[in-house]
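Fold this complex.
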Amino acid sequence: MADNSNSSFPGTNPFLHTDFSTSIKGDAHSSPFQKIEEEDEFEVTSPTDATFKRSNAGDNSTGGGVFFKGDAFGGGSGGGGGGGGNGNHSLFSRSPFDQSPNEGSPSEPSRPTGAAAGQGFPNNYALGRRTSVSAESLNPTSAGSDSWTPPFHVKSEEQLSRLKTAVSSNFLFAHLDDEQFKTVLDALVEKPIPAKDIKVITQGDAGDFFYIVEDGHFDIYIHPSGAAQPGPDGLGNKVSTIAPGGSFGELALMYNAPRAATVISVDPKSTLWALDRVTFRRILMDSAFQRRRMYEAFLEEVPLLASLKPYERSKIADALDTIKFAAGATIITEGDPGDAFYLLEAGEADAVKEGVDRPVKSYRRGDYFGELALLDDKPRAASIVAKTEVKVARLGRDGFKRLLGPVEEIMRRAEYEKPE
Amino acid sequence: MATETVEPSTRNTAPRAPMSPAKDGIYEKEKEKTLAATVRPAHQRAVNPFVITQRSEEKQLGVSAKGLRLSDLVLIKTLGTGTFARVWLARLKGEEERKNKVFALKVLRKADVIKLKQVEHVRNERKTLAAVAGHPFITTLIASFTDEQSLYMLLDYCPGGEIFSYLRRARRFNEYTSIFYAAEITMTIEFLHDVHGVAYRDLKPENILLDADGHLRLVDFGFAKQVGNRETYTLCGTPEYLAPEVIHNSGHGLAVDWWALGILIYEFLVGQPPFWDQNPMRIYEQIVEGHVRFPHSMAPAARDIVSALCKTNPSERLGHISGGSARVKAHAFFNSVNWDDLYYRRIKGPIIPRVDHPADTGNFEEYPDPPDPSSQTPYTEDLKRKYEPLFNDF
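Structure:
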């Protein structure tokens, strides 16, 4: 149902200069490396270009990947000693006085402008100057719930499941956790389209909403000028049709960019679901902000991390993933290689060892486990089993080594299997 | 003298900072004009980026000049345009004996700034530029002022033009050139982060100018913000250079500049950024996936630094992980760099721009004339009541 190509517009990039827009069509997905091969021919001719004699800025086609093999000063022989790849005598440490003699002739000052610019470039990358983009500024309120609550529009279970399917392949939604996903779906507002030929969005207009099609079909038109024009053919060419389960206008969830196409209803009656950018980004922001505050508050309580500075704890908070386990589930298995360290966020867990009847250690909120195997690269010394439903914050091996270095000694001092 | 240049309409708009009556009016304006006219050229004051805050003679930079007027300046030529700003080459009137003393004047129409919801960003820009004024690799704010319609920032003129133009023309830079420029940018990011806690947030070749000596100047601080160790949430930047956490809106901080440095180094060496598609949503999809493909000709150290800077998880990103910017500078990619020499500008830049005279604009592209003011959004009384106090810092 949700054809991926329907969820976005294949057409004009709003960041593109119009003069490029016709020449780059159809090749957007080709590998960039082919392009580089292609322009090698160009480089053979460029140094002779009189208007850009000092093309030392250009690639000297060293190819082999040896640093400074090519003389960056465009053929100045005096630089050879410095550029010989000798790490102790770097080009950078030459005094300006040494430079001036051999700088004289080969280094005519450069102009970046002029007729030759752009010549020989592969034309599938847009070479134009890129425009900055910006969305509305959002600030989380530390006060919490009082200021903003996400909108809630009632939907049936069936509608929810269809909407979920419609957006699940979209990368903006793919990384949401269950809670965020639910909040986002709840915020979708129904937009009935009561007739045929209604323009839902118009190419070139400001875009604030993202739409999911519940029923009905919608045609997509793109005008080569980048904006819909008045008159009978003003919409440009029809490029595609969106069916139920499809979606369009997703860029509006990022920032206000001009619409890349015009979308028109085909059926006498259709239904859309709409989501505006501020609501969407606000939901993401609030949940990220709450999660961070929760982790920071939690990490502050963890005795092991008490000696860390607040910003060190906040970096750890960034690197944590929450995982839930049902009561009775095994979090760590004895004998497995160690790949992560865990902080117990909620619930209780026991450490058990093969051949030992009772738990060798018990854990509750604020406790940690899994460090031994990481400290010494040994297999897990015990299994950890969830006693109740458990929430753990997981820190992978890399993060553990990088972020918990300062407390390694404390962890090594911890004692195990000592009857309490 | 010169009473005709004091326009009654502008006199009333900008509420002035409290000051002694003697300092007000014409005397003040003359003082500010003199100040602007006598600011030493960039290359003479670039001594050590980390001591500028202590150099008393540089403290006059970045002031809010309540007496200065647009009518004190002659606008010569457009150097660049943005969504809501235009930058002019400008000269002080009555400075004929100093014909070569020119400036870049950034003009922002208040109505456009409000319409595009950039009021906070513009305020951050002025504040940041004033704080860092005098740094050898950052454009210098000499003074700012306002009138009825617009905000003005008087900046050093950087005659070499944009690195962007050189890069597109050369297609790509060689290792030496790329390392040199990446190193100067690394030092600039280090300074912004460590000394001011400022995230720049819009690194790209278009925002890097070349000065007469071939050294870099970072310009356009429209998205710069003092964040320190906190998080901020406003999506801003340039599509190809946005970090994954900005796209996800999960909160971002200083680490976004290190991500962008990785993209910049890649674009220097390869000629185009690693993530690109005609459709911006596909760019973002690639960015959050974070899989960088390298041309086989790219040197191992270059690949390694790009991979380390372009880690999708900011807590794993070089520059942001423990060791901070020092770890970036210690990377094998920068092995050949003598940071001390670079720091004191003892090395000549790899590209020396052709600058025939200080007011030469030959390295900038041509821009169309500004639109007729009558066709532009008016700054209504209503907007003024609501927003004017926010522009008081200028």
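The domain at 49-157 of chain B is CATH 3.30.200.20 (Phosphorylase Kinase; domain 1).
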